Structure formats: structure tokens, C-alpha cells
Amino acid sequence: MPGPTIDLTVYENEEALLAGLRRRDPDACACLIKRFAPLVYAQAIRLLGDADEAEGVLQQTFIKACDKLDTYEGRSGLGSWLYRIATNEALMHLRQRSPRVGLDDLAETIQEDEMPQRLTPWTFDPTTAALNSELRAILEQALAALPATLRVVFVLRDIQGLSTEETAVALGLSESAVKVRLHRARLRLREMLAAYMQEH
Amino acid sequence: MTCEELIAHLSSYLDHEMDAALVAEVQEHIARCRNCRVVLDTTQRLIVLVHDEGRRVIPASQRSALFERLQQAFLNRPQTLENSNLRTAEDSAV
User: Fold this and answer.
1) What is the ipTM of this complex?
2) N or C terminus of chain A: which is more exposed, having fewer CB within 10 Å?
3) Residues from chain B contacting residue A26 (CB–CB below 8 Å)
4) Which domains does chain A have, with CATH numbers?
């Protein structure tokens, strides 16, 4: 006898899906995964810069989310809630990776070698041109090359679009530390991308 | 304002977190300093360039194997009373 099949379109929208999760519909978690796993994985890989670790975070995120639905208060969207779980899981991985270099004990000033060196204007205009796969690969490499302490701030602020305050809370940092790290991350990324930009 | 000072304050300027008096100093500096103008412009472009990346998902070609493993991990997770009645099916992988 064939097993039950799941109609993944059964939930029209996020509210319906959430209601299904709260009723503990058998298929609700599978729908949650289908809807949000691509976003969660993309976030995990940006934060960690490592595909294998990101996959572990992806799995942990959904296992935790489905087992801890009672803690979801519904104030933010399901996506934001999952992002938060994924971010916490990823940060835990980063701390385990280098336990002696905490996410909170980094020099907070601009280093001399971080002063801009590449001073050629870019012809690429992101307001009119979309990222091609080559440039996206360059960006991903550059992100992965950043120290984790800078990368996580940049991902949360400039990519995910959290405010300084939200980022500070998520990372357990002061707002001024978030600002300095964001600035340093931007300078370093600009420098790394500039190497590509001035050749294209 | 020197170039070093401008670079140190670049993000505050781009994020509109700067006092009006300092903003005027930045604008005065970049009007006469070509290098700082380039750094300001390219940093701004970087921020715009990554802005939409937050909505990007994994390529379809990578999805199915990844989702299959995710589903297996999910199905094989330690069972609790709360989740023991939850099921997933093969077609939850995209």
C-alpha cells in the first residue's frame, strides 16, 4: 500500500501554515521545510562560509523549529524566526570552530592595512545591472575570506538588512562594536571586489 | 578633514548616522579628493550590490540532494512526545 502523499500547496499562506503547525498537522513541518529551507541554507552558508557546516545548521534549524514551536510567539514572520534560529546555530558553530577567538574580542579600530589601496572607479553599476554568476562567485569567495567576526556582522546588517540594534542583540555586542565591524568588513570586501572590478 | 579621517567615518556617512557639521566636511573633502570619492562611490556600490543577496536562495541543481538529506535527518531525529505524530513524505524535497 503506498504511503500517504503530501499536498504541499495545502496551506495557502503563512498564517494557514502556522495554524497547521500549531494544530500539529502531520504534514505541516514538511511544508515549513519546503517553503523556508532554501532561504535558511543560503543564510547559513553566508554566515559560515562552509557548505558542510551550513548543511548541519540547516538540519538543526528545522529540527529545533519543529520541536520548539511552542516558543514561537508569532510577533515576527516565520521566516524571521527561522533566520534567528539558524543564525544562533551558525554562531554556535563559529564559536566551536575557534573557541579561543571569541566573537567579542577583536580589535575595534581600523587597522593600517585596511586603508583602501585600490582606487580605480568601478564600471559595474549594481543599480542597473544584476549580479552575474562570475561576480556572485567572487562575492561569495570574498565573504568566506573575511574573518568570522566581521563576516557575521556584514551578513546580518548589509545582506539580511537588520538594524544596528537588532544585530547587536543577535550577536551580544555593543552597537558601537557592530558599527566598527561593519565598517571594517565593508572596507575589506570593497578591496577584494575592487581587484575583480578593475579588470572588468 | 584628512583622507584617514574620511575613511574612518565613511560608514557613518553612508548610513546617515553623521552630524550635519561632519557631513559638510565630508562633502567638502570628496569634492576635492578624487581617491576618497572613488572609495566612497565603490563602497556605496558594494552595499547596493549585496543588498538583494539576502533574498537569494540555493540553486535548484543543488536542492534535491540537500533536501533529501534534510528530510532524512528530520525523520531520524530523536523522537519526543510532541513530535512523534509528525510525518514527512518523499515529495517534500523539491
Assistant:
1) 0.77
2) N
3) 85-87
4) 14-97 (1.10.1740.10), 112-197 (1.10.10.10)
